């Protein structure tokens, strides 16, 4: 019966998205696999979007969807928000250019705004993405501590570069013991050395983490963590508090990767919720207002290792006597602190200060109504998440606390439901988390619940 329903949802998908299929066939002649980022792909092929406004997107076949992907959470104000457009136009008109390549006033204005919301970020630097932000954070940690290894958590994602592309989504057959996970490389082309230099920790298990960190503390520069795994599985307060104390004791820096959670679980991110200050914080996504941006910030003494000094860096051709590039922490980028992007980010934060509670309330309403609906149809489900992010998790497990718990849930049924939802006009990449925006209202909540009701009435199990 399940196989027949799978076929039904697939046939509907194929019939409604024929132009997307044709587009991908053409795109495959230009880009490997037809996409320029692996995350944009899903089987049998990704939907190709052509227009968007507010909470809605439209594909090349003319199908309209309520968007819960929101560019993986980046669009906290929805698509095409008027105040972001106005801020971008105003910056271009007032400054006369979209790029200076020099310091400019918006770098300070945005920095002051960030420091007000994230007091732990005593000094900060801009990057062009969340991935670049975490990369810089780890370089700063290594420079500050003089140690080369890092520790990350199983199931946590911090970007697509080698040091952290370890044990993000490992098979349980390769993942090793739960209390002492094995490091598993997640891509071709990676050096085997990362199996030694990246140490994997079990999320929400303080006792096991303590043993691993004590065994390796002389070599570990930093522990990097998503305070909410994948943006929706929260750390237990006792775990995050214990991790903070432990890293301080062992002279290991604690990095909060708040690329997903910053401005989504609260304006001040997860550190505001937990009342825990990390040594370094990374931000991205929401603060760009739909443009590429990242920020790294932290304690003044730590961040100052990235300050330009008298020593020559890699671009200083004078190479003054007695100095070399190796004496300076190098960080650069033509587009770092891009004025147009910072203008969009400041506009985003301004709107969120007034409308954050609306997004949080709408999210809670959708979560509770979906949980009630699944209960009505006798399907075990939990809407897990904090703030404006959550995931539909099909399980009887009382509490989902880590990556391995998530692997034991009914992922097959969740994927089947997601494919049906596309046919019902709900846009969500299969198995992904839900993100809401200021553009989502009671109307979208009602339409989403109705779509779920139509699907669950088919008797899915």
From TrEMBL:
Listed GO MF terms: glutamate-1-semialdehyde 2,1-aminomutase activity; pyridoxal phosphate binding; transaminase activity
GO biological process terms, semicolon-separated: porphyrin-containing compound biosynthetic process
InterPro entries, per the entry: Aminotrans_3, Aminotrans_3_PPA_site, PyrdxlP-dep_Trfase, PyrdxlP-dep_Trfase_major, PyrdxlP-dep_Trfase_small
Reactions listed under catalytic activity: (S)-4-amino-5-oxopentanoate = 5-aminolevulinate
Top enzyme category: isomerase
EC number(s) on file: 5.4.3.8
Domain of life of the source: Bacteria
Pathway(s) annotated for this protein in UniProt: Porphyrin-containing compound metabolism; protoporphyrin-IX biosynthesis; 5-aminolevulinate from L-glutamyl-tRNA(Glu): step 2/2
Entry keywords, A to Z: Cytoplasm, Isomerase, Porphyrin biosynthesis, Pyridoxal phosphate
Listed cofactors: pyridoxal 5'-phosphate
Pfam family, one: Aminotran_3
PANTHER family hit by this protein: GLUTAMATE-1-SEMIALDEHYDE 2,1-AMINOMUTASE (PTHR43713), GLUTAMATE-1-SEMIALDEHYDE 2,1-AMINOMUTASE 1, CHLOROPLASTIC-RELATED (PTHR43713:SF3)
Family membership: Belongs to the class-III pyridoxal-phosphate-dependent aminotransferase family. HemL subfamily.
Protein's UniProt name: glutamate-1-semialdehyde 2,1-aminomutase
